Amino acid sequence: MSEQSYDVVVIGSGPAGYVAAIKAAQLGLSVACVEQWQDEKGKAVVGGTCLNVGCIPSKALLDSSHKFAEARDDFAVHGIGVDKPSMDVPAMLARKDKIVKQLTGGVSSLFKHNGVTTIVGRGKVLAGAKVEVTDADGNVSVVDAGNVIIAAGSLPIEIPPAPVDNEYIVDSTGALEFSEIPEKLGVIGAGVIGLELGSVWSRLGSEVVLLEALDSFLPMMDHQIAKETGKIFKKQGLDIRLGARVTAAEVKDKQVHVTYSTSDGEQHLTFDRLIVCVGRRPRSEELLASDSGVTLDERGFIYVNDFCATEAPHVYAVGDVVRGPMLAHKGSEEGVMVAERIAGKPAQLNYDCIPSVVYTHPEVAAVGKTEQELKADGVPYKAGVFPFAASGRALAANDSDGMVKILAHEETDRILGCHIVGPSAADLVQQVVIAMEFGSSAEDLALMVFGHPTLSEAVHEAALAVDGHAIHIA
Ligand code: FAD
């Protein structure tokens, strides 16, 4: 056993861990990042789920498939004639892989540039803020850390009725690698990841059925926006079946035979491929020595306070492995906060202002409270809604499905939430995130000058609509 020593040892190099490591190094601390994922040459694969099998590759495929669908379905309306477009799936996958390589290579370079040491191996937190590292050959060493930041992330949840075989039944990672377009594709789970991956293959021509056990569609979203989103997806041909609980999936003759139950009884469907997207669980097993002092909550998340400190002194945890939305930007900002607190700065994170996005087309994006949450909390509120059908820019782009909805406090006018389904919703909602961080009222947004013609004008009009003063709707 050898012993090395750093001010900070980060376990995991996903967006929570690598950002924490870089920030800590920028603040003058000596930093090592332990990563278990390695390539065939034994080199660390950095970037975690997000860069390798999550946010980035899924967006690469979403963008490729969107361009294909536009060429096939939308160019004609602009007067553009194209012969029937074709899709070279291996070329699409190769482009995705190139982007992943570029970005993970970028993280490695940033580690070098900032003097972060990468240690390849599996990290385990020992008592007294020490980290045990086991390499691929089973060699064990102990790293002495002034502070430990656990950023071990999450894994897809598996369900017994549909065991992943990585050929016919896959999880989200496998769904990024189909070498050809499945004619019939089943997706278990109509949540964010299921909708994004279902959209990719649907745009390319798959007949997609999403089986969702819950009775409501996107229940965490504002109900009005979720309803509108459901209508738009239906128009696009996504077959979303709610209240459909999968009870069995069996591969026979190169097809997946799925049994599911609804209020009407047992149903059967056959697919060429099945994606299981029922959520993710924290990767907290085999991570903590029994005397580490770090505790888990009842769902297996590492227990932390508002500042991401665990119950063990000098041990922090950030990202998907702790409570809160499983989003890359949430993890990254937690990483920054923890690095700054270790360096003695009074950093904190505003958990009320974290945007969430579904990167379908159109996108669905939200920040803050939903209308149903405000009702349940008894908060007096007013709502302003503006449809993209009344936006000159959206019409010019032939992309006018959806709406912007802003919720503000009835008495103070302070913005409490914004919910958007529509073109560039992810970027538009960010404007309201900024406004909310500055404690803006809906009137503040209404009084600002927005460029014309822009999609942002829909945000302006929704803010005006909060007091019934939108210009471009009756
Ligand atoms: P991870 O990214 O999971 O990284 C954890 C790292 O820790 C991994 O590299 C793992 O190998 C390593 N590790 C684990 N245990 C150990 C150990 N004991 N020792 C050493 N190393 C260890 N989020 C968004 O915000 N936007 C999106 O558009 C988006 N799209 C997504 C699409 C898909 C298909 C998926 C699956 C996820 C998506 N997410 C998205 C979620 C996002 O990927 C996660 O929220 C994010 O990656 C979490 O970051 P993290 O650093 O906490 O963990």
TrEMBL record:
InterPro entries for this protein: Class-I_Pyr_Nuc-Dis_Oxidored (IPR050151), FAD/NAD-bd_sf (IPR036188), FAD/NAD-binding_dom (IPR023753), FAD/NAD-linked_Rdtase_dimer_sf (IPR016156), Lipoamide_DH (IPR006258), Pyr_nuc-diS_OxRdtase (IPR001100), Pyr_nucl-diS_OxRdtase_dimer (IPR004099), Pyr_OxRdtase_I_AS (IPR012999)
One example GO MF annotation: flavin adenine dinucleotide binding
EC number(s) from the headed UniProt entry: 1.8.1.4
Catalytic reactions of this protein: N(6)-[(R)-dihydrolipoyl]-L-lysyl-[protein] + NAD(+) = N(6)-[(R)-lipoyl]-L-lysyl-[protein] + NADH + H(+)
Coiled coil stretches, renumbered: none
Cellular compartment(s): Cytoplasm
Top-rank taxon, per record: Bacteria
Domain Pyridine nucleotide-disulphide oxidoreductase dimerisation: 354-463
Disulfide bonds: 50-55
Chief location bin: cytoplasm
Record has Membrane as a keyword: no
One GO location term (cellular component): cytoplasm
Annotated FAD/NAD(P)-binding domain residues: 6-335
Binding site for NAD(+): 189-196, 212, 279
Cofactor note: Binds 1 FAD per subunit.
Cofactor annotation: FAD
Binding site for FAD: 59, 123, 320, 326-329
The protein's name in its UniProt record: Dihydrolipoyl dehydrogenase
Organism: Parahalioglobus pacificus
Gene that encodes the chain: lpdA
